[in-house]
Design brief:
The complex is a heterodimer of chains A (about 220) and B (about 260). Chain A has helices at about 5-35, 40-55, 55-65, 70-80, 90-115, 120-125, 130-140, 145-160, 160-165, 180-185, 190-220. Helix content of chain A is about 75%, strand content about 0%. The N and C termini of chain A lie far apart (about 50 Å). Chain A is mainly alpha-helical. Chain B folds into two domains: about 1-100 and about 210-245, D-Maltodextrin-Binding Protein, domain 2 (3-Layer(aba) Sandwich); about 105-200, 3-Layer(aba) Sandwich (D-Maltodextrin-Binding Protein, domain 2), CATH 3.40.190.10. Chain B is built from eleven helices and ten strands. Chain B has helices spanning about 1-20, 35-45, 60-65, 80-85, 120-125, 140-150, 155, 165-175, 185-190, 225-235, 235-245, and strands at about 25-30, 50-55, 75, 95-100, 105-110, 130-135, 160-165, 180-185, 200, 210-215. Chain B has a five-stranded mixed beta sheet, with helices on both faces. In chain B, strands 7-6-8-5-9 form a five-stranded mixed beta sheet. In chain B, helix 2 links the parallel strand 1 (about 25-30) and strand 2. The termini of chain B are far apart. The chains are: A mainly alpha (about 220), B alpha/beta (about 260). The interface of A and B includes residues 65 and 70 of A.
Chain lengths: ~220, ~260
């Protein structure tokens, strides 16, 4: 039985890169959401949560327009690099980052909120810089939040389908991710391959979630 | 509330039975969708029946019918799947006929891009992506792949190919200029919305196997008078003229056997 494992590897890469991007972008956003008193806070919260409720087609449609050579993101990228974003791995990373944003920001937001400002203020009073206090005090305390963010962001990107179907172009090794490969196999009635790939994805997601729940239970809340 | 509901149903019932309108559930290959809408409009006007249209790649629609999708008629982009349906007793025997012969065209939304024959344009490579329909599920995808192979440019362009899930999505990739050009159905370019805009090179028919598009009456629809009437309507001159206007060839004899 010929099973092409390329899409599995590609999907893992996509999920990995997306999580890294989202940690870099999402951590400051979550921090801001947890502690700001700004009036636009609720609006930003709502925007971050949008991908949970919007159908992937809405996101996919906007991304298709935005990533295209005349779109806001794609046009800028083309000026910058000379190549377009649509149907590229980078394009998919951008798409996935929007798609999985709430799954990273929300756990972090919750964690930062529950840690609260008190330990930080204590650190500041001991003359730790703000950034230093964040790294050495808040982050270790919010470690469960980070773990959930990483795992949920990763797993949610593994499960991405609709957006990739709309903006990916089904290119082997570039944009043909696991969910698309499974869809293709089902379409041409190659049920054996579809079964194998589906089972792999199912077990992978189950294993990831089991690990995170186990670790979460055992991790101490306070890290010295 | 209840009264108005009953009243509504009553009115609806009376209206429906007065016109003896029936619904035809049609599964239509994406390339034929724009043409189908046009035919559906005049059929609905002429007969009072109503069409419920689902479209997708022929491969997907075929798989859906196999798994019990409740369609009455199937308009495929090929003759292979309607024939398989006959063999698998999913279609009514003898109902299969060729409703159109598809034309493939290399199209760009940019009026200046395709300025010569396809071979030159493709081998010059002034594009990042060329879109084709997925050759595994869409007959227009197979034809596009054959054309690229026959033109001898497959090795050069293979890495630039992006695949649409069906010819509808393929067209949309090119229309949105995410792909600079692509192999689409001529009918899509000639549809009222596009009206031949952009630039194109119509693929000579000898470069790929003919895109003989056949339709069948599905077992589901064999008792549906409207479905039977619709298939006859498609074979008649009025509909055939529309089909030709959209850039398809039509067959002389109604029953093609191959």
């Amino acid at each position: 039985m010929d099973v092409d494992w390329g899409p599995l590897w590609l999907t893992m890469q996509l999920a990995g890169v997306t999580v890294i991007v989202l940690l870099l972008v999402g951590t400051p956003v979550a921090w801001w959401l947890a502690f700001t008193k700004s009036r636009i806070r609720t609006m930003v919260e709502a925007i971050v949560a949008l991908p949970i409720v919007l159908p992937p087609t809405v996101l996919g449609f906007y991304l298709l327009v935005a990533l295209g050579p005349h779109g806001a993101i794609g046009g800028f990228w083309k000026e910058l690099t000379g190549s377009s974003l649509s149907f590229t791995f980078t394009g998919l990373v951008i798409a996935s980052s929007f798609y999985s944003l709430p799954f990273v920001v929300q756990p972090l937001h919750g964690a930062f909120e529950s840690v609260g400002k008190m330990p930080l203020e204590a650190a500041w009073s001991l003359r730790a810089s703000k950034f230093d206090a964040f790294l050495t005090v808040a982050s270790p305390m919010a470690i469960r939040g980070f773990l959930s963010a990483i795992v949920l962001g990763f797993a949610h990107t593994l499960g991405e389908f609709g957006v990739v179907l709309m903006v990916g172009g089904n290119i082997p090794g570039v944009t043909k991710v696991l969910s698309i490969a499974i869809y293709d196999h089902v379409e041409v009635l190659e049920y054996t391959q579809a079964h194998i790939l589906s089972a792999v994805l199912l077990l992978l997601c189950f294993a990831i979630l089991t690990i995170v729940y186990t670790v979460n239970r055992r991790l101490p809340i306070h890290v010295s | 509330m209840t009264v108005s509901c009953v009243l509504f149903l009553l009115i609806f019932y009376v209206h429906a039975s007065a016109a003896s309108a029936e619904e035809v559930r049609a599964a239509v290959a994406s390339n034929f969708l724009a043409t189908f809408h046009e035919i559906a409009k005049i059929f609905e006007h002429d007969t009072g029946h109503v069409l419920a249209i689902s479209s997708g790649s022929s491969g997907k629609l075929y798989a859906q019918v196999q798994h019990g999708a409740p369609f009455d008629v199937f308009f495929s982009a090929d003759s292979k799947r309607p024939r398989l349906m006959e063999q698998e007793a999913l279609a009514v025997p003898e109902s299969r006929f060729t409703y159109a012969v598809g034309r493939l065209t290399l199209w760009s939304a940019n009026p200046a891009l395709i300025n010569g024959d396809g071979q030159t344009v493709l081998s010059q490579g002034r594009f990042e992506h060329v879109a084709i329909a997925n050759p595994k599920t869409a007959p227009y995808g197979v034809a596009a792949k054959h054309t690229l192979e026959r033109l001898g440019v497959w090795p050069e362009v293979e890495r630039r190919i992006v695949q649409g899930e069906n010819i509808g999505q393929t067209f949309q990739f090119v229309y949105s200029q995410n792909a600079q050009l692509g192999f689409v159905a001529l009918s899509q370019v000639l549809s009222p919305k596009i009206n031949g805009a952009g630039s194109r090179w119509d693929v000579p028919v000898h470069l790929h196997r003919p895109l003989t598009q056949q339709a069948v009456l599905l077992v589901n629809g064999q008792r549906n008078q409207a479905a039977v009437a619709f298939l006859e309507y498609v074979k008649a001159a009025k509909a055939q003229q529309i089909i030709e206007r959209f850039g398809y060839g039509v067959e002389e004899k109604p029953h093609a056997n191959e």
